[in-house]
Amino acid sequence: MAAPAAVMLPAPRPAIDDADAVAVLPGLFVPEAMQWLSTSSGRVALDGYSWMQAVHWVAGSGLYEPRRHRSHGPRSFGVTTVRAAQELAALSPCRPGIEYLVRRTGLSERSVEYHLGMLREAGLLAYIVRGTRVRGESAQASEFARMIPVEFDVALGVRTVQRDEDAPAYTRTMTGIAEAGRELMARLAKKASRKVRKPRSKTSSKGPAKGARGGADGAGVTGVSGESRCTPMGGGSTGTSGAGSTSSPSESKLARGERKSPTPKKSKAGGRRLNRVGRRYQLARELIQELDWLAGCSVPRIAWVARHIADAGWTVVDVQGWLHYRGEAARVRRASGLLATLLRGAETILDTPAKRSTAVEEWRGAQEAARRYRIEQVRARRERYDSDWQPPASQALHRQVDHAFAQVREIANGGREAAQSSAAEAALPQLSGLQDLSRQDIEASRQDAWGRLMLGDTSPITVAIDSMGRAAAEYLYGADLVRRAMQLASGARSSLMTIGRR
């Protein structure tokens, strides 16, 4: 392990707020090789509250200046860095994903990376496991140890002890503090107990921003005194890696940590308001997701094509209603050009929300009708065409069926009175000549119908019932077979029952 950096002891000072007492300390900067837990000269913070005291001290001391070591990025260790540190203080273990910090702080991905680097360079964070960025694989987040720099202990007169001689130096613990540093420690404790938030406007944050680097007590960091300090999560940072031999989880699947607060947070009223260009791009992305024939198109180009309707306040549902009203092409060669043609004049024809609502209702009605039609077609196909049914081979049965259909057509044409038709239906087995069938023909018909019934096909029996009546069907196939076929046919029409072959 590398030897800790030399630290100059503070000169005797008459007062706590004497700026000369802090000036004798060297500037805070930890090179990249020393930003690991095994090479760090600081000590591990046992909880997030004590770590935030060190963060506020660094923010107010002015000992760390980022622009001394790089030509880009933030110019000072200020309110934004403290806000990022607050999110890290609530995590246990401290394994923040970049996407998580972006959502919590509202900063960009590059800004989050800048502030994490500043916390490492100031000696407040040290790598336990460094994340990976491998193309084609999910990104693995880094795990940090929250550190208290040795400059903090020297400036406030903090006494530490190494309880286990075999343990690393970063496991030393605090045993006391000099009388001269108690007042400053009390002020830092008040700042650590309050939540720092983003200034609402430039005018309200102008005063604190100017004094962010002045004073040893960190007067530049503003806090919210009305909110209670978040309780740190159980446990704390340890000197050993919690990862072990397992790989770190993906940044998108990290636990966000929990903040225990007596009052729930209030969500901000409304959301981020998009300008004209933002609304165009939002509509373009939604159109590419909803319309299959736009898949793979460029979002900027679709945003340019749909700029007129986006400026008129159209939604993706309104566009779908208009495309149903306008008509879509069955063959698409150039999707963006087709969309430009279909949307031509749309904002002038459907120029009011009421007209667009009417088009949307018609589109939804057509969608529902098409859905019901598909369901009916699937049911009909399953009932009639999915099986291996073939017409009966018996010629005698064909003649009887033709004769029965002829009688039905004659009755439908009004050739007989109602009484005659009723008598004909009652005497249908005799009129149709079923009694002329031999016992072998009837037995063959029943065997054929029974075999098809086992496959879920009831068409021979249902056709006989529809054409010749229930009595004739029972005479030909038997009452038990007809009853089974009717039960199966009634069940096939239910949506709760599916009949088919595996």
How does this model look, in words?
This protein has 502 residues and is mostly helical. The protein has 3 domains: 19-253, no CATH class; 276-383, no CATH class; 395-492, no CATH class. It contains 22 helices and 5 strands. It has helices spanning 19-23, 48-61, 79-89, 98-105, 109-121, 150-156, 182-193, 206-210, 276-290, 299-305, 307-311, 316-326, 335-342, 346-349, 353-384, 395-412, 418-426, 428-431, 439-454, 459-468, 470-477, 479-492; strands spanning 43-44, 125-129, 143-148, 158-161, 173-177. A 3-stranded antiparallel beta sheet has the order 1-3-2. Helix 2 (48-61) crosses helix 7 and helix 20 crosses helix 21 (470-477). The longest helix is centred in the last third of the chain and has 32 residues, at 353-384. The chain is elongated and about 120 Å long. Mean pLDDT is 75; it is low at 1-23, 204-220, 222-247, 255-262, 416-421 and 427-432.
Layout of secondary structure:
Layout: H1 19-23, E1 43-44, H2 48-61, H3 79-89, H4 98-105, H5 109-121, E2 125-129, E3 143-148, H6 150-156, E4 158-161, E5 173-177, H7 182-193, H8 206-210, H9 276-290, H10 299-305, H11 307-311, H12 316-326, H13 335-342, H14 346-349, H15 353-384, H16 395-412, H17 418-426, H18 428-431, H19 439-454, H20 459-468, H21 470-477, H22 479-492
Antiparallel strand pairs: 1-3, 2-3, 4-5
Helix pairs in contact: 2-3, 2-7, 3-5, 9-10, 12-15, 20-21, 21-22
